[in-house]
Automatic annotation (TrEMBL):
Listed name of the protein: NAD(P)H-dependent oxidoreductase
Keywords: Oxidoreductase
Source organism of this protein record: Flavobacterium arundinis
Claim: Cell cycle is one of the keywords in the record: no
Keyword Oxidoreductase: yes
Length: 179
């Protein structure tokens, strides 16, 4: 089983990347890769820019990573109650080369933020969007108050209740690809 994880964020200090990395570490996979959206940066998508630059190879590389994987761990960051531009941008560019961006792969969808709502607006936005583009979301988990509930030095959730909840979700996760 090959696992690809990333955060829907381009912050170099991304708390969602920390959460995605922790969750990926809990999953029993032979091969794991954690990618950073900074390596997939493109101009802001518009049909005009697309006319100028065509189909960017970076978007193809992003699609290749997803095709390589048997499952995806995606932790979406929230900006102004939605998904970040960084994630949406590579998603939009990639969708022009292949409609089913997420390639029918099983997805563990996560989110976290410093606030008590744990970036659930971004999570809900992803829950609407990803399944239309091949994201087979099998489970979701949101960690509220990241700074209180995650030990950055240890790289793990420090709050036992939240940690147990994530571990239970991972225990019950159905990895089998259906699409
Ligand atoms: C422009 C901007 C808008 C934000 N809007 C929200 C928001 O709507 N809800 C929320 O929970 N956090 C919001 N935040 C705080 C982010 O959750 C916080 O910056 C978090 O670290 C982002 O995740 P990341 O570190 O993985 O990029 C916002 C931050 C920025 C910079």
């Amino acid at each position: 089983m090959k696992l690809l994880a990333f955060a829907g964020s381009s912050s170099t200090q991304s708390i969602n990347k920390k959460l995605a990395t922790y969750a990926a570490g809990l999953i029993n996979a032979e091969e794991k890769e954690i990618i950073d959206l900074n390596d997939y940066e493109l101009p802001l998508f518009s049909v005009d820019k697309e006319k100028l630059i065509g189909a960017p190879p970076i978007a193809r590389l992003f699609l290749d990573k997803i095709e390589w994987a048997d499952m995806l761990v995606i932790s979406v960051a929230e900006h102004n109650a939605g998904m970040t531009v960084a994630f949406k941008n590579i998603y939009d560019w990639a969708s022009r080369q292949k409609k089913l961006v997420f390639d029918n792969k099983p997805v563990l969808l996560l989110s976290t933020s410093p606030g008590g709502y744990g970036a659930k607006n971004a999570l809900e936005a992803a829950k609407i969007s990803l399944p239309r583009y091949g994201g087979d979301i099998r489970a979701t988990f949101s960690l509220p108050k990241f700074q209180e509930n995650f030990d950055v030095e240890a790289g793990q959730i420090s709050n036992k209740e939240h940690d147990d909840a994530l571990k239970e979700i991972i225990r019950n996760f159905d990895y089998e690809q259906k699409g």
